């Protein structure tokens, strides 16, 4: 499904907005791919991303899901608009064991105000490779700045 942005400069707009997202930057999330309706990024996992059993903390998992889905929707709105999370659901499929998280967020249905999104959260282990550890679903809402 090919989505079209209403912002001809959406890639630079996303980069600029991500630079202002303090929490995203605090946890070390970096975007690796920006397309209309799609964002991919990663976190190099450190001890502060883990919970007491040394699995990726569920809050980190849900945060990166929210980030990639929110910015995937943000790629589609006109300049001068933003997006906020209206609802968020995360299904945790298995423990996150590894040294890197990869998050892939996409818009599955775009409207003028509401955007239905999903995300895959993948944990990379140096010996066991990539495992899908969670899937997120959200409704993002366009807002004027």
Low-confidence stretches: none
Q: Identify the quaternary structure here.
A: single chain
Number of helices: 3
Query: How many β strands by DSSP?
Result: 6
Q: What number of structural domains do the residues give? A: 1
Q: Which homologous superfamily in CATH is the superfamily?
A: Hotdog Thioesterase
CATH architecture field: Roll
How does the helix and strand content classify structurally? alpha+beta
- Helices and strands, in N-to-C order? HHEEHEEEE
Mean pLDDT, as a whole number? 97
Query: Distance between the terminal alpha carbons, to the nearest Å?
Result: 28 Å
Under CATH, the topology is which? Thiol Ester Dehydrase, Chain A
What does this structure look like?
The structure is a single chain. The chain has one domain (10-144): Hotdog Thioesterase (Thiol Ester Dehydrase, Chain A, Roll), CATH 3.10.129. The protein is α+β, with helices and mostly antiparallel strands. Helices cover 22% and strands 44% of the residues. It contains three helices and six strands. Strands 1-2-4-5-6-3 form a six-stranded antiparallel β-sheet, with helices on one face.
Topology, element by element:
Blueprint lengths: L9 H10 L2 H5 L3 E6 L2 E7 L13 H17 L6 E12 L7 E11 L3 E12 L3 E16 L1
Antiparallel strand pairs: 1-2, 2-4, 3-6, 4-5, 5-6
Summarize the structure.
The protein is of the alpha+beta class and 145 residues long. The protein has one domain (10-144): Hotdog Thioesterase (Thiol Ester Dehydrase, Chain A, Roll).
Supply database-style keywords:
145 residues; alpha+beta; Thiol Ester Dehydrase, Chain A; six-stranded antiparallel β-sheet; 3 helices; 22% helix; elongated
């Amino acid at each position: 499904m090919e989505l079209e942005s209403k912002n001809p400069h959406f890639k630079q707009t996303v980069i600029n907005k991500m630079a202002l997202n303090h929490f995203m930057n605090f946890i070390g999330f970096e975007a690796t791919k920006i397309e209309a309706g799609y964002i991919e990024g990663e976190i190099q996992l450190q001890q502060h991303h883990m919970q007491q059993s040394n699995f990726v903390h569920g809050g980190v998992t849900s945060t990166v899901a929210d980030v990639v889905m929110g910015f995937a929707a943000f790629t589609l709105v006109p300049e001068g608009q933003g997006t906020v999370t209206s609802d968020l659901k995360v299904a945790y499929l298995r423990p996150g064991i590894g040294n890197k998280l990869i998050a892939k967020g996409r818009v599955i249905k775009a409207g003028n105000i509401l955007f239905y999104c999903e995300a895959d959260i993948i944990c990379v282990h140096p010996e066991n490779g990539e495992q899908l550890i969670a899937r997120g679903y959200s409704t993002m809402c366009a807002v004027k700045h």
